[in-house]
Amino acid sequence: MKTSMLRWASVVVLSALVGSGATLAATRLLPPSVGALGASTASAPSVSGSVVPTVASVNVSSDIEKVVKQVEPAVVGVVDYTQNQNPFFDTSDQSQESGVGTGVLFYKDSQSGYIVTNNHVVAGADKIEVVLNSGKHVPATVVGTDPFTDLAVLRVPVSSVQNITPATFGNSDDLQAGEPAIAIGTPMGLDFADTVTSGIISAPKRVMPVQDEQTQETLNYQTVIQTDAAINPGNSGGPLLNIAGQVIGINSSKIVAQGVEGMGFAIPSNEVVKIANQILKTGHANHPALGIEGYSLSSLPTVYQPDVPVNYGVWVRAVTSAQAQQAGLKAQDVIVGIDGKTVQNIADLRTDLFTHQPGDQVTLTVYRGSERLTLKVTLGSMSDASAQSQPSSPYGN
Questions:
Q1: Is 40 a catalytic residue?
Q2: For residue range 51-75, what is the model confidence (pLDDT) as tens digits?
Q3: Spatial CA neighbour of 181 closest among 113, 235, 125, 108
Q4: Which of 150, 333, 348, 352 is the catalytic position?
Q5: First CA to last CA across the chain, in angstroms?
Q6: Where in the sequence of the chain do the CATH 2.30.42.10 domains occur?
Q7: Class of domain 71-84+97-161 (CATH, top level)
Q8: What is the fold of 172-282?
Q9: Is 284 a catalytic residue?
């Protein structure tokens, strides 16, 4: 599945982060002879020279409308600010808006409300505000982020969300292609806050790369939900909902290419719940770690290329954990397999590791020069120096 991702090399996967920098011009699409309801005024019947209006009783209530009324108050805009680096402007507050995304309130305790969004929405921000359905701006702090799943959790004072019911999550494992999907978000900035789009689940499981916004390095391959509900810049971090009003995914990206439309992607709700739960507890996601500093062999300059009989795999620059050292892993080794699966690059290795838990044992296939070795390594856990004291989790262990 991961090898097949190479065919996306010519397709740009655009994370829907870019804020409200664009200005749109709304144009009238109906011709002058067509009334507001789409009926031609030229053929309307008349009595004594007067137009007789036709009044129809229409019930516009729908399941989608009910979902929107239920969940929309929990959907917020997320505005990030960065420091103005222009030395000619010396003001007390040099921060400026750098992007707008979306988030959704999913949990409250006695002191705070917690909002899940995308990591790429808040990455690099010096200051963050959330914008409530009422239009009120509320300062927010980052509880923790996870670039490998592109998720982040924000905290706001509970008083600001006291009267808002957190959104609930559905089971993304139960999704079927063809079922309705509803997206709520802030496309193209706050002027279009609370925009609702709808469509279907195009495919419940696709494998797409998670990329670093700055370097475009592929960090991981992630199973995501494909939908044709319109997702635009600014929708990132907003909920994808089922017809019962449950969050089934967090919108994260879309494919942008000439002739391509209706291909958006969302992180499945089961993954969101797991990662958000871990961030609430510890401030970071609890991913397993092999305990090495490594690089894709194909990315190494020629001068650093080791003398091995392969041109793929992960070159070990340093071994950083006692478990990996005890297993016999050494610097300059090249990892070409894990548990019988081929490892082409660092993203492959990380993706396979993330199917395990800290404490699990994995079997590595390694080249040390021309010698092929099999090593068994017990996995550790990634650490995060920025972890803060965290609230109790709403989802248990």
A1: no
A2: 666 555 555 558 999 999 999 999 9
A3: 235
A4: 150
A5: 31
A6: 288-381
A7: mainly beta
A8: Thrombin, subunit H (2.40.10)
A9: no
